[in-house]
């Protein structure tokens, strides 16, 4: 297990070098063993052949020496001349000595050989007989020499037979040794073949081990990749080794964990976007409906109050015209001063009542503008909340990365819509502030006119007691009436401008409703996109 772990942690470059070195060293070892064995066998064969050849040569030499001695013996017998006989005897003795020397060498080579011992014994018997033959030949006693030679012939035949047997034995022994050496060569070849077979078997085992080291993690990696391609992110990759395959498996494991984390973040972001879309939709629906209803109600009230104010203004103008005619008539006819003053006082009282009504109407109008301001503040607050929700949605979309790019666009549109709504709310607030300011000015002028009316009534009362200054008082009343007429005209102009502001408010209300509908559509699109993203995420097994 430890060796397997160490091999698994090696890089494939080192593994390849290690296995190549193993094969190369194995082949070198087999080659060296085979070469040494063949070299040793060749040396053994050469030494055996040399020894066998030497023994055969010695045996053959002994045969030759024996033949030479027999030839010399025959020559000694055949010669007649003493000198020739002497030379022939010398040759025969020399041949006998050489034969003896040859058999001694043969005995040294074939020490312990029974036939060599027999050959030695035969040679010892031949020596005296040969000397007797030489003696007889030197005496020219051919008959005795021939007789002695005949007696030696059995010994010579025996010696020759032993020599031939020794030669044949040595040749047979050499053939046996050659057969043994050939068998050893075959055994060596068989041993080398077995060694090569074992090395090949070991190589196959190592190759299978290496192939298992390669294919096992690759099959696991392939199965994991197929499972991941089908959306299963729960698969676990085991990268135990530190080689290239193990590092690849570790990198795939990190990629799987990162992909799992990314898909989980996308799922959470989609859920948050969906929740925020629902909140935006509910907020837009509630805000749009409430704002439209309240703004429409306020616009109707303002329009009603402005129409009432205009009607009362017309009535006041009519009363002022009547009062002016009365003053003119009283100026022409001082006899009717008392009755005209009474009519004027009655008209001023009616005017005072109408002015009170106008003041109440302007107060209602001021309250309506205050409510409109409250509504615009609510719109601005809702726009701010919508902008904040859109910003949150944009942040979540940015976290989602490439998958949240569509949500980022939708969030930008929602934020632009909220900014536009807030801008329209500011314009409404600005218009309402202007209307409120005009209403306050109108109210102040109406209070001033009412105060002047009260003053005029007091003056008219003084006219009753001070008839002498009636003309002057009537002129003053005429002037006051003219001022009142101017004030009423200004009030009518203000009311007309307020009516224009109300129409602008109504237009803004319609625009706000359209913006709210657009916001609801955008929120619905975000909900659809979030649902689509959740469906995509559901294809993965987390």
UniProtKB/TrEMBL annotation:
One GO cellular component, as annotated: membrane
Residues in coiled coil: 145-184
Methyl-accepting transducer domain ranges (all copies): 292-506
Entry keyword set: Coiled coil, Membrane, Transducer, Transmembrane, Transmembrane helix
Record domain HAMP: where: 212-264
Pfam families: HAMP, MCPsignal
InterPro entries noted in UniProt: HAMP_dom, MCPsignal_dom
Keyword Transmembrane helix in annotation: yes
Transmembrane segments: 17-39, 189-211
GO biological process, one term: signal transduction
Family listed: Belongs to the methyl-accepting chemotaxis (MCP) protein family.
Protein name: Methyl-accepting chemotaxis sensor/transducer protein
Species the sequence originates in: hydrothermal vent metagenome
């Amino acid at each position: 297990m430890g060796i397997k772990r160490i091999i698994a942690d090696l890089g494939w470059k080192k593994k390849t070098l290690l296995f190549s070195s193993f094969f190369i060293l194995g082949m070198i070892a087999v080659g060296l063993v085979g070469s040494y064995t063949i070299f040793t066998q060749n040396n053994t064969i050469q030494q055996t052949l040399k020894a066998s050849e030497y023994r055969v040569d010695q045996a053959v030499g002994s045969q030759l020496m024996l033949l030479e001695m027999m030839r010399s013996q025959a020559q000694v017998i055949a010669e007649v001349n003493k000198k020739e006989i002497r030379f022939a005897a010398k040759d025969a003795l020399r041949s006998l000595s050489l034969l003896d020397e040859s058999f001694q060498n043969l005995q040294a080579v074939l020490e312990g050989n029974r036939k060599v011992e027999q050959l030695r014994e035969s040679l010892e018997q031949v020596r005296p007989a040969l000397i007797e033959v030489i003696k007889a030949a030197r005496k020219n006693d051919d008959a005795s020499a021939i007789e002695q030679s005949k007696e030696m012939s059995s010994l010579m035949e025996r010696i020759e037979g032993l020599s031939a047997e020794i030669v044949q034995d040595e040749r047979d022994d050499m053939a046996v040794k050659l057969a043994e050496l050939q068998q050893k060569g075959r055994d060596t070849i068989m041993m080398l073949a077995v060694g090569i077979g074992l090395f090949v078997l070991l190589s196959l085992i190592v190759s299978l081990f290496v192939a298992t080291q390669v294919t096992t993690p690759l099959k696991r990696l392939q199965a994991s990749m197929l499972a991941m391609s089908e959306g299963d992110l729960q698969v676990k990759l085991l990268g135990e080794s530190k080689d290239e395959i193990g590092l690849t498996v570790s990198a795939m494991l990190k990629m799987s964990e990162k992909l799992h984390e990314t898909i989980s973040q996308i799922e959470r972001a989609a859920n948050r976007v969906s929740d925020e879309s629902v909140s935006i939709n509910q907020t837009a629906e509630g805000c749009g409906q409430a704002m439209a209803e309240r703004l429409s109600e306020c616009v109707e009230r303002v329009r009603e109050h402005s129409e009432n104010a205009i009607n009362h203004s017309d009535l006041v103008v009519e009363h002022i015209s009547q009062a002016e005619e009365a003053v003119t008539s009283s100026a022409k006819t001082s006899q009717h001063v008392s009755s005209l003053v009474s009519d004027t006082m009655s008209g001023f009282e009616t005017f005072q009542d109408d002015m009170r009504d106008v003041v109440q109407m302007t107060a209602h109008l001021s309250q309506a503008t205050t409510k409109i301001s409250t509504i615009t503040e609510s719109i601005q607050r809702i726009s701010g909340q919508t902008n904040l929700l859109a910003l949150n949605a944009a942040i979540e979309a940015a976290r989602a990365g490439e998958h949240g790019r569509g949500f980022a666009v939708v969030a930008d549109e929602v934020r632009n819509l909220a900014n536009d709504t807030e801008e329209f709310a500011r314009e409404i607030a600005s218009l309402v502030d202007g209307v409120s300011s005009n209403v306050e000015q109108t109210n102040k002028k109406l209070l001033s006119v009412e105060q002047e009316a009260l003053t005029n009534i007091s003056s008219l009362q003084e006219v009753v007691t001070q008839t002498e200054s009636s003309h002057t008082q009537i002129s003053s009343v005429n002037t006051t009436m003219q001022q009142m007429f101017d004030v009423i005209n200004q009030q009518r102009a203000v009311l007309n401008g307020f009516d224009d502001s109300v129409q602008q408010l109504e237009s803004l209300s319609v625009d706000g409703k359209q913006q709210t509908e657009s916001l609801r559509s955008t929120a619905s699109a975000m909900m659809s996109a979030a649902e689509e993203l959740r469906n995509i995420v559901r294809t993965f097994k987390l």
